[in-house]
Every structure is written in C-alpha cells, then in structure tokens.
DNA sequence: ACCTGAACACCGTTCAAGT
DNA sequence: ACCTGAACACCGTTCAAGT
C-alpha cells in the first residue's frame, strides 16, 4: 500500500539537502563549499549526497533551478510594469545568485549538465526579452542584437554587483533604447 | 661584475614558464591545468614554479598581463577606424582568452591578486571607451551608463563566443547607439 | 640563489560492507 | 533502498635537504 511513502521521504530528504546547498553555495560560494561541509551541515555522511545527486555539478543545477523558480513565481508582480522597472526587478531578484553567475560560466566549460542549464537559461531569458520588445512595438532587423545586448548587460550587472544608482541608470538607458521615439 | 647576469637568466626562465602557462591555460583551461602538468611541460619539478610565482593565481595574472600587452601593442592599427570596427577588433583579439574570462570572474572572488587585476582591467577598458565616446562627440548624463553597457556587452561576447555574424551585428548596433544622429 | 623529493592538508568521488 | 567508514586519485602548497 505505501508505495509512494518512501518516495515522499526521499523527496523530503533531497529537499533538505538542496536547501542547505542553496544556503551554503550562495553564502560561501560553490568552490568554497566542499561536499564534506555540505554533508556535515545536513547531518549526513559525506558520500550520502551521492545517493540523491549524481555529483557536485548536479547539486549546483538543482540550486539554480530552485532560485530561478522562486524568481519566476514572483515575476507576475511586475510583468505589466514599464520595461525599466522590469529590468531593475530582474537584476534585484537575481542578485542573490551574484556569486553563482561566474560559477555557472566557469563550470559550464567542464560540466555538460551545467552547460545545458546555462543554454536553457539564456534561451528562456532571450524569449522573455523578445516578447517584451515585440509588445513594446519594436521591430527591425536589429532586434536580435538588442536582445543579446540586454542579456549581456543584465549578466554584467549581476556579476559585478554595481551600486543601486548605477544599476538604475543602466536599466533606464537600456529601456530607453527599446522605446520607439 | 656579472651582477645582472643571473637576473637575466632568472627573467628568461620565468618567461619560459609563463609561455608554457599561457599556452596551457588557453588551450586546456586554468582549472584543467594542474601545477604538476605545467611544471612537467616546462621540464622542472612541481614546486620549482613557486620560486618564480607566489601561487597559481599569480601565474594567471602574469598570463593575463601578457595577453593584454600583446593586444594593446596591436591596437594602434585600428585606433582611428570607425567605432564598430574598433569594437569588432577588440572582441576578435581578446577572443583567445575566451576561456579565461569566466576564470577571472570566478577567481576574483577568492584571490585578491586576481580581483585587483580584474578591477584594473575594467578601469582601463572604461577609460578607453570614455575617450572614444568623447571623441565621437557624445555627451549627456548617460555616458557612464553607456560605457558600462559597452563593457558588459564586450564581456558577454567574449565569454559566450557567438558566431561572426551575430558578433558583427551586435558591435554595429552598439556603435550606432553611440553615433549622434 | 635555485631546485628537488617527499610530505601535508584537502578535494570530489568510489566501493565494499552494513541495515 | 539507503547509509556509512575507509580508501582512492588528485590537487595546490610547504618544507627540509641538497647544490
């Protein structure tokens, strides 16, 4: 009868490990968090993690998905706001994974799993931008170039952690670029 | 009498180690190149490197300086070309350190030496952009925002290695943004 | 001053053994 | 199915010993 009970427990334990990983990766960084430290924080032996995740990069991908899922869940709040406000919101929301941006780029060159996640994230972001730009009535052959400029700028803002004033100015300049005169 | 002869030899040997490091870091990546592999390629014992460099990050900084120095030496060729051509040249030239871009961002969070280099590089690039934009007759309060957008876009192009057509389109769109109508 | 072999502390991961 | 202690191969770095 209880055919899904153990699965329930398994999912819960995985979620616990994931929660600890998310906290440690964001607080201390991916490289600074050893599998031993993660296991200790979760109260299990070092190698137990490998029963729930294939390797350390798999933990990273799970953390990234969790952070992005939370962000998307809150997106509706601003989905109808002006473009500049949307951009600012995206940067602020994803700022929590500031330290993970460089990690993703670094690991993507070595881990196929992280590379796949990175490609998917860019695809999603560019689709989001394209929709927004088209709704704003933008047209022309340069729309693809503008999307890339937008994505790269967001990525740069995330990675470098500028002060609030600069961040705001850049988002507004970017939005202005996309507002037909 | 030969007070500078040993220094000469020392500089040569350091240059040899640096040359091997530059090749290996760019070909195989920073993380994939162990200090042991670097030493073997240079024909010395593993720990000999530490007499010429303080640590692995110090080798990285030396490699980065060498690559940028070579690039700047060639810059005069295009310093009077149109802005779009200048941007394209910068991306093409620095493309050789494509794999190192993510490494720099990743290591900057852990190594003060790499962080210092990274800050200096951004300062240099932004100064270069500012000069170019002012010469182009651009003014306004948004000039700082535009510089950042430019730098982040270049960085994104370097890190992601887009195809030639996309790269060209983005550089032209960026240059167009900076050309007063 | 320069170079080395050997050791150190750490890392992600694997494996045989338990329940 | 799930968890563990112990081991493995590797890493950057240090140190005592040589010349």
From TrEMBL, chains A, B:
PROSITE patterns per record: HTH_TETR_2
Domain HTH tetR-type: 11-71
Species in which this protein is naturally found: Antrihabitans stalactiti
Pfam families hit by this protein: TetR_N
InterPro entries according to UniProt: Homeodomain-like_sf, HTH-type_TetR-like_transc_reg, HTH_TetR
Residue ranges of DNA binding: 34-53
Name under which the protein is recorded: TetR/AcrR family transcriptional regulator
GO molecular function: DNA-binding transcription factor activity; transcription cis-regulatory region binding
Keywords carried by this UniProt record: DNA-binding
Taxonomic classification: Bacteria, Bacillati, Actinomycetota, Actinomycetes, Mycobacteriales
């Amino acid at each position: 009868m209880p055919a899904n009970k153990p699965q329930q427990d398994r999912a819960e334990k995985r979620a616990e490990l994931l929660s600890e990983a998310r906290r440690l990766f964001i607080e201390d960084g991916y490289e600074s968090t050893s599998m031993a430290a993660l296991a200790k924080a979760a109260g299990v032996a070092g190698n137990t993690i490998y029963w729930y995740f294939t390797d350390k990069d798999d933990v990273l991908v799970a953390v990234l998905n969790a952070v992005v899922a939370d962000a998307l869940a809150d997106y509706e709040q601003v989905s109808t706001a002006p473009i500049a406000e949307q951009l600012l919101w995206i940067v602020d929301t994803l700022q929590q994974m500031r330290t993970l941006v460089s990690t993703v780029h670094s690991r993507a060159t070595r881990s196929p799993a992280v590379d796949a996640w990175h490609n998917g994230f860019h695809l999603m972001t560019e689709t989001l931008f394209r929709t927004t730009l088209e709704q704003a009535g933008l047209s022309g052959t340069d729309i693809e170039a503008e999307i890339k400029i937008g994505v790269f700028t967001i990525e740069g803002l995330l990675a470098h952690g500028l002060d609030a004033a600069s961040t705001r100015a850049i988002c507004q300049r970017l939005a202005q670029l996309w507002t037909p005169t």
